[in-house]
Amino acid sequence: MLKLSKKVEYGLIAMRHVAAGESGRVTTAKEIAERYKLPYELLAKVMQKLAKRGFIVSHQGVYGGYTLAKGAGEISISSIIDAIEGQLPAIAQCIAESPDSCSIYDNCTIKNPLGKIQTNIDTVFRSMKLSEIV
Amino acid sequence: MLKLSKKVEYGLIAMRHVAAGESGRVTTAKEIAERYKLPYELLAKVMQKLAKRGFIVSHQGVYGGYTLAKGAGEISISSIIDAIEGQLPAIAQCIAESPDSCSIYDNCTIKNPLGKIQTNIDTVFRSMKLSEIV
DNA sequence: CGTAAATCGGACTTAATCGGTCGGGTATAG
DNA sequence: CTATACCCGACCGATTAAGTCCGATTTACG
After folding, report:
1. Full-prediction pTM beyond 0.85?
2. Do A109 and B85 touch (CB under 8 A)?
3. Is A61's CB less than 7 Å from nucleic acid strand C?
4. Quick one: DSSP state of residue A4?
5. Using CA atoms, how far apart are residues A33 and A70, in angstroms rounded to an integer?
6. Which of A70, A121, B37, B131 has its CA 20 to 30 A from that of A63?
């Protein structure tokens, strides 16, 4: 419970790797998969999402690969998770989606405290930048 | 991803309810299940765990039920989660269990930053007490 | 050109976890 | 002795996560 998904872990490893390389150099998904012993196809798909969100730039074709799209200081862990999962990390259904996705919302006595906890956790993920983990 | 389990949600609702009642009064699992429309059997099991950990006192037999075992200010959200799940909330396998439960631990480049994030999240859950949500 | 190497993207399968249920046991007030 | 409540393990179905497969598109280079 409360664990990050493998996709997010792989994404973070990949982002760090790309950010750590020389600025001009392209890195392929294959390279990263081999280097860290990650399942290639899953990693590849994660990197596609990261490219779509504009964190890395994709270069297709032979000798293609990925390069970092912006400064590592501008990329938060929070936004990376959001890119991969399609939403920000939320500790409860009624926070992630609409309140009426929860059947007991009306007489739920813990939604306010959970909201407070959520705010604090948001801060944790938003304040850590990729630049801090390179 | 990163969501609390239903068991934890139910446990928090139950603990809050017990803590909110008059100090002498016993509360049954059935009562809480009906009041908040929670599945009785699941809730009951959660409350048994909370009793075993000494957060609530169980009274068996007819007119039995549960009463709060200690001050609401002494009970952290963190410890409630721990009681229900059998472990503290961890964002990665290698944090929850031993490092060698992770196949890529040795060349994992993100374990340190994840550790830092974990520390901050620990603080969030540890610093909020039951007394704050009653 | 044609080929090889890379990104794209959906569909599918398998594995693991979660949420919930069931059945039987123990304690105890009246 | 019975009704009511806690106790506890086993089980099952649904959902989600993890991983795989297949085919398409792009592009450097001989």
Report:
1. yes
2. no
3. yes
4. P
5. 23
6. A70
